[in-house]
Design a protein that fits this description.
This is CoA ester lyase. The protein is of the alpha/beta class. Helices cover 45% and strands 15% of the residues. It is globular, with a radius of gyration of 20 Å. It binds glyoxylic acid and magnesium ion. The site of glyoxylic acid has 8 residues, from helix 7. Glyoxylic acid (GLV) binds next to helix 7.
């Protein structure tokens, strides 16, 4: 994310339909790093006005602790976006961290949201620029434009993969979100998409989040699919059911051993490169030679571990 934006843990990003008061209540007691209250595809068109009101109410009165609080609005091709943004931000902007914009296809769509947010923040007397934007990439055009989208506004904090809409948009022959399409047996059908999103995010200092896994009873499947994006470097994944949260928090945290080792590397490197330690460049830590590149790798693991409270 841009230097000015705070880094927030997002190992588990829990989705809650804005139309379901029971789930909105229950989500407050869950251990997810982020909660996103949805106005888009999990809310029926006729339920959207009531969902906006529910969301404003729970943001203002709920016990959300330190987790990231996001609302997913409808995408700009619908009739609902402007009202989603105005009602939610005017009503609860002081208790909101980010808006998630789904089905982003062009940088202009992010810029339009930025302008609207700036107007509302100014009119309401909120700090201008406080509310971040999470851009969900869910189709081929969005993926092709992802670099422009990533740099469209200093508000952007994350790039998010939307596998279900993406599979539909490219005519993938499968109905099981996140799993390999039957007939494709030469690798991971999502590898290019995940890598493309990861490169865009890392090139522009943003977080990158994997999307939902819909087989909510299959925790092994969730762990397997999450493990792939975590191995590449993704920061977290959506959770649709409370049982997925613990798995996400585990999969996207570093191993305790790796975390401890990273902290040792940082301590040793800091000491040996200082005057007191001999101002060395490459140094030995046990049997391992460490240098500036090792420090950078250790910083990644340590940063994720510290964000996860290790
Ligand atoms: C999520 O919005 C998805 O389309 O996978
Ligand atoms: Mg979607």
């Amino acid at each position: 994310m841009s230097a000015a934006r705070e880094i927030r843990a997002r190992r588990s990003c829990h989705a809650v339909p804005g139309s379901n008061p029971r789930f909105l209540e229950k989500a407050q007691g869950l251990e997810s790093d982020q909660v996103f209250l949805d106005l888009e595809d999990s809310v029926a068109p006729i339920a959207k006005p009531a969902a906006r009101a529910n969301i404003v109410e729970v943001l203002n009165t709920g016990e959300w602790g330190t987790r990231v609080k996001t609302v997913r609005v409808n995408d700009w091709t619908t009739q609902w976006t402007y009202k989603d943004v105005i009602e939610v931000v005017e009503g609860a902007g002081a208790n909101l961290d980010c808006l998630m914009l789904p089905k982003v296809q062009t940088a202009d769509q992010v810029k339009a949201l930025d302008v609207l947010l700036t107007q509302i923040e100014t009119a309401m007397g909120y700090e201008v620029g406080k509310i971040g934007i999470e851009a969900q990439i869910e189709n081929a055009l969005g993926l092709i434009n992802v670099d422009d989208i990533a740099t469209a506004s200093p508000r952007i904090e994350t790039i998010i993969f939307g596998p279900a809409d993406f599979m539909a948009s490219i005519n993938m022959k499968s109905l099981v979100v996140g799993e390999q399409p039957p007939g494709y047996d030469v690798g991971d059908a999502y590898h290019y998409i995940l890598m493309r999103l990861l490169m865009a995010a890392r090139a522009h200092d943003l977080q990158v989040i994997d999307g939902p896994y819909l087989q909510i009873k299959d925790l092994d499947g969730y762990r397997r699919v999450a493990g792939r994006s975590a191995a590449l470097g993704f920061d977290g994944k959506w959770t649709l059911h409370p049982s997925q949260i613990e798995v996400a928090n585990d999969v996207y945290s570093p191993d305790q051993g790796d975390y401890d080792h990273a902290e040792n590397i940082l301590d040793a490197y800091e000491y040996y490169t200082s005057e007191k330690g001999g101002a060395k460049g490459a140094v030995m830590l046990g049997d391992e030679m460490i240098d500036e590149a090792s420090r950078k790798m250790a910083l990644v693991i340590s940063g994720k571990g510290r964000a996860a409270g290790m």
